[in-house]
Amino acid sequence: MTFAQHPQLAEFLEFIQELGDTARRVLTERHDDGRFETKADRSPVTEFDRGVEADLRSMIRGRFPEHGIIGEEFEPEQADAEFVWIMDPIDGTKSFVAGVPVFTTLVALCRDGVPVIGMIDASVSRERWVGVQGRATTLNGQPVRTSGRKDLSGATLSWSQPDNVLDEHREGFRSLSALAAWSVFGAASYGFGRLAAGAIDVAAYSGGIGAYDVCALVPIVEGAGGRITDADGSPLTLAPPRGCVAAATPALHARVIHVLNTPTPAGPMPSGAGR
What we know:
By secondary structure, the chain is of the alpha+beta class. It has two domains: 3-143, Fructose-1,6-Bisphosphatase, Chain A, domain 1, CATH 3.30.540; 156-260, D-Maltodextrin-Binding Protein, domain 2. It has helices spanning 9-28, 47-63, 93-98, 170-179, 189-196, 211-214, 217-223, 250-260, and strands at residues 37-38, 44-45, 68-71, 83-91, 104-111, 114-122, 127-132, 138-139, 142-143, 156-159, 182-185, 202-206, 227-229, 243-247.
């Protein structure tokens, strides 16, 4: 039985919408002066990050007390449970603080460590992507598909954190930027949502992220026809990722993984790769 046939799927989907509604309400009613704190990793955090996560955790405990919870701002709870909710209350906190409206709320449900439901909620633009393992991804309730592009030539690239790239990916990042038609920067998970909707062909992170940044993206990208993995091509799970690479098709994804992990200027792919 696939997860799309799980007897509680409808209940889980209704609940993740409730979580999204709660986060959106808080983030669209913000009244603050832009104050934030800087965490040990030099990333900012606001009272809204903590407040949204606390609200969502309370809702999960009340509805599914046997489920685990992992979030960016607080310690994990029952992280070894069969079902674990994992969230980033504000993905793109720098954009949130600066008033740039590309921040989102990410929530995923993982089963045995594998993301099976994902939600990206962009509160300002009122866009909500929902993906389910084995089902078509929706944007505001309507099915969406990736662009279907298979080659880097002419591709568009969203690179979320160009100022935070692992040393092993620096040359590959430069090569990808040179091979793509054009790039956008700083969109964070919103860029992955736009990939699922067909507007962007490649979206990537390299370093500086946690599982809460990527788990929600997996069912969304895959349910729209794309491919998404860690930066080395391995599956994304509750384990800490080193990166995240998504592309409109498996063929394009294979090409991007090859270029990103090639320490010299991009050359031809190995025979058979990306087919």
